[in-house]
Predict the 3D structure of the following.
Amino acid sequence: MQALDRYAPLIGHKPPSKSLWDSINVIPSGDQDQWDRENRRQRVLSSFQSMNGQQHKYFFAINLYNSFDVIPDLFSTLFRVASVLGFNNVFVSIYENGSKDQTKALLNIFDALLRSVGMRVVIRTSQRTRGAFNHRIEYLAEVRNAALVPLHELRDREGEFFDTVVFMNDILPCVDDVLELIWQSRKQNAGVTCAADYMFHDEIVSFLGSIAG
């Protein structure tokens, strides 16, 4: 319920018109708490129903390289985030290059899964790898720009624009982290919002944060 309250402004799908107990005239014995939770959930969802007339569109640009082990978790998170934002409001662009594992094969499976729930997706693969003398930052900029190509194509061919661009790569994201990043960006009306990495420092017995690059 706390997550619903916090991220309700991001909800991009039409809430159910009926609550769990709408068709029940008498509250079942011992289910008052469930009744209250469901009613509160419906109030939260319906209070933002008016926002659905002005859909916020999200473009997820994802770079992958040798990501076979993390793809299942990555796409599980992506499905759950998109279920909040609205599947029809999300476009996924994936650029994979140079993988030596079964990343390409697994992407074919998830391409079908994404389309099955109404999410638009473009997956492009390449054999390109970073050369021994290529500057790391320049190379990363090039592959990230490659993931953005469909964004420009949709603008030029279809006149379609997106409100938010979310970059992701071969990390293990959690649903709340992605929603918090989007929520903070919209709340602060920010041009760019960056996540943070944390690690536990044994000497000071505390967590240290750094900007995720």
